[in-house]
Amino acid sequence: MTFFLVVRRNILDLRAEERRRFIGALDLAKNTVHPDYVIATRHYNELIDQERNTTNFQNISIYDFFVWTHYYSVSKTFLGPGQGSAGGIDFSHEGPAFLTWHRYHLMQLERDIQNLLQDPSFALPYWNFAIGGNECDICTDDLVGARSNFDQNLLSPNSVFSRWQVVCEFVEDYESLGTICNNTAGNSIRRNPAGNIARPMVQRLPEPEDVVLCLEVNLFDTPPFFSDSTESFRNTIEGYSEPSGQYNPTVRSLHNLAHLFLNGTGGQTHLSPNDPIFVLLHTFTDAVFDEWLRRHNVDINQYPLEDAPIGHNRQYNMVPFWPPVSNIEMFVLATDNLGYSYDVQWPSK
Ligand SMILES: [Cu+2]
């Protein structure tokens, strides 16, 4: 078996033909049934419907499977018949697994698209969102879609993404009906970059200096390994701290700020992967993670063994990926271990 190293590049560095190819690949993934997976649309005790002699599984497209796995990781946890659901459990955010979980999530999509195109050199590009200002520089029709002239919350009809319909939109309904998100297509993607007038703090993108500062935070994560951890690299890049690492409950920085700046589908946790800008925002977040691992000499002991929220400890499997994969398997340098690398010009002080 040959080991293929793919290079994830800045999407703005792609030539016109490469841009077309990438957008085309995403659109094909949105419209092709996943060849390997089906989704469960009921909890385990209702998976087999004996009365109707059927099962509650559905086909789902490759891209929507990517959306569904993220939704599932943040949805309430079913405790069993008659016991309802437990909220406040998040397998992929507000804890050390934030970086390892999203890393695998992207690898899964990249691999699925490689198989779809039968092109092992296909690489997801990234969006350097740490450019300051109030302009989304990749929100153009040759990339993730410009703003519509008719409705400032929608995408331009010249973008293929204006025709995408979101899935997993009605979280409250799934909770009240006791079901799980299914493959039903809903509304269009909404995005209004810098448009949240009620919250001026999220009308500007992170600054290049914010990346410089967060890469200097020495500890990977700190107790309580949650969204109020201070001097934690993970909580800083996730965006609950000042870029220098100091926890501040009023701050939204880096990854969180980039999401909130989008002010629409991409700004709501359970829905955000429906907007393809999610892929590019997260590859950049992952590039910062990989650079931190390189600069701070990755060592598994930096990753908490215990006392992190459920699903976030070192040896725990990441929900709902199958076959099982644990956090620590993703706590490695991508170039040496995972088959991809980043081509990034890091800002300096
Ligand atoms: Cu996420």
Describe this structure in words.
- This protein has helices at 16-30, 62-74, 97-117, 171-177, 208-215, 233-238, 254-262, 277-295, 334-337, and strands spanning 6-8, 39-40, 48-49, 54-55, 57-58, 77-80, 84-86, 340-342.
- By secondary structure, the protein is mainly alpha-helical.
- The strands form four sheets. It has a two-stranded parallel ribbon with strand order 1-8.
- α3 (97-117) packs across α8.
- The mean pLDDT is 95.
- The structure holds copper (II) ion (CU).
Summary, kept brief:
This protein has 349 residues and is mainly alpha-helical.
**H-E string:** EHEEEEHEEHHHHHHHE
Radius of gyration: 20 Å
Given the C-alpha coordinates, what overall shape results?
globular
Beta-strand percent range? 5-15%
In helices, the fraction of residues equals: 25-40%
Biggest beta-sheet profile? 2 strands, parallel
Continuous helix count: 9
Residue-averaged pLDDT:
95
- Strand order across the biggest sheet? 1-8
Low-confidence stretches: none
List cofactors, ions and other ligands.
copper (II) ion
Number of strands: 8
